[in-house]
Structure formats: C-alpha cells, structure tokens
Amino acid sequence: MLLGITPLVREPHYKVYVSKVYSLLVITALSIALPFSLCYKQTEFAAMVNVRLVIAALMTASLYAFNCLSILSLPFAMRIKWQHLFNNLIKLEASIPNKSTKVKQYYFVFFFVNAFFWTVTISDLWIWYDIVGWEYIQQYLMDGVQTYFVLIYSLVLHALIRSLAGYYDNLRHLFENRISQWKKHIHMVPDDSSAFLVHNQHLFALLKDTVDVFNDIFGWPILLVLVYTGLLVIDYLDYTFKNYDGLDNNDFYKVATSNVFLVFLFFMNILSLIWMCDSVLQQSEKTLKLCFQLRAIPTAKAEMFITIVYNNRPRFSVARFFDLDRTTICSVLSTITTFLIVMFQFKGA
Question: 123: domain range?
Fold first, then answer.
C-alpha cells in the first residue's frame, strides 16, 4: 500500500482492518495540521482581493477533498472495485501479455518525478525562508505534503493507463497479423476463425469492463486533480507576473524560476494523463477499423463480432461530467487563460 492510496494485489483479511486504521490516521493527521496552516495564512488572506481569495479557498478545498477521497475510499468503499481491477489486469496479462511494460522505465519515471518535485519544493521553501523567514514554511509546508499525494496518485494513474494502452495495442497487432493471414486465403478461411473471433470478443468485453472499473475508482479523484492543477497553474502564474513587485531582481528570478518549474511539472502531469487516455481511444479506433475488414472475409460470426467490438469501445469518464480525450487539453487551456485574463483585469482596475 502506497501512502494509503493503493492496496496490495492480494491483501490478507486482517490487513483490511490495518489499512482502515492507517487511512484514518493519515486523514486525522492532515485534518489536524490543516487548520494550523490556515491560521498562519490569515494575514495573507486578509490582503487578497476577492477573486484571489476564492481561488485560494477552492485550492484548499479541492486538495483536502482529493486526499480524503483517495485515501478513505480505498478501505471503506472501493476495495471490491480495486480487486475487480486487479483480477481483470491479471486475466489480460495472461491472454495478451503487455510486452511494452518495462519495469525499469516505471522506476526511472517514479524516481525522476519524485526527485524533481522535492528539489523544486525544497528550493521554493528555502528561497522564501531566506526572504520572509520561518513564517512561510509554517504556511505552506502542509500544502507541499498534500500536493505530494496528488503527484503519487497521478503516477499510479499513469501506470494503469499505460498498461491499458499496451493491451489495446497488442490486441490490434494480433488482429493485423491474423487478418493479413486470412486475406491471403480469402476463399478458404481457416476453421479456427470462429473460435478466434469468439475468444477475442471476450477480450474486448474484458478491456471495456476494466476501463469502466477504472472510471468508477478514479473518476472523482481525476476531477479533483484537474480542478486543483488548473487552480495551481492560475495561482502560481498570477503570483509570478503580478505579485512580486516588492522583491529585488535576484529574489524575483529565484521565485519565478521555482514557480515555473512547479507549474510545468503539474501541467505536464495532467497533459500526459489526458494524452495517454486519448492514446487508448486511438488504439481502440484502429482496432475497430481493422475489424471492418472482416466483412470481406466469409465467416459467419464477422458481423456479430464487429457489433460487439463497436459496442465495447472504451470511454474515460471523469465522474460522468465529461470524457477525457484530446479535446480536454484545449478546454483546460481555455479555462486557465480565461481565468488569468479576468484576474489581470481585476488587478488592473
């Protein structure tokens, strides 16, 4: 279990109670520390204009809600869903092994992202400690810890979505090879063609079921990650361009560099998450196009198979509010740009 947000693949019954207690302890610690952090920020809140105060409140609420949801949902609500997800992944790995999965690559990404995050976070704390003293650490250390949970959760999402993309890609290659063989003997389709189609229609249904379970588990957390990341980007860019007039050039460049790096990390996090979801959809569409070629092959189950594949296309739903695909990137950029323009106008007035 990783920071209380992921279970073991096979968890002994007694560890269920341990994970519940552990999750409650983590949330209790966050709940006790958060009011102290907010109290230390009272002076800063008092100096904010209304728009910035609303953004600060939404950031705090979305971050805390994300941590409560991601940590408490596992032992108290989503344990069966998680087991369902693991069982599906085990079946998929047995049927269409994901050769694109490279464990060393996952480790490299995990350690690189962690090193990048903590380097930027510690640098930011040190820069502001040098400028205003211990007060800044009292105000924002809690935010750094909570934000780290978002980052770790996002790495779990990336690993799962990448695995799904690999399974869809392998299934597409399997179809490409089999259809090319059938086309060479179009008037004499092998006897195992029907068995092949029946077997693979179960794989498509299994993949769709896996994506649906993924949506059930991660829909709301992904929504909160998107909300928090959008607010973080707006907040940091606004501060960088408008709020540091009192700093000398050296301090300004340090703060601006730290802010830009953190914005880059979290924006690239959601960008890559959306991009990988879209890659799963693309692999599914490519496979569906291949399936339409079955109409040229004389096999009785072709039409039924095409219908099943069409009806089992994946769909990444964010808490049923909207779907994750490439157009979501444009929506996020549009929202961030609009907010920044509004905030700049408020401050210019």
Answer: 13-348
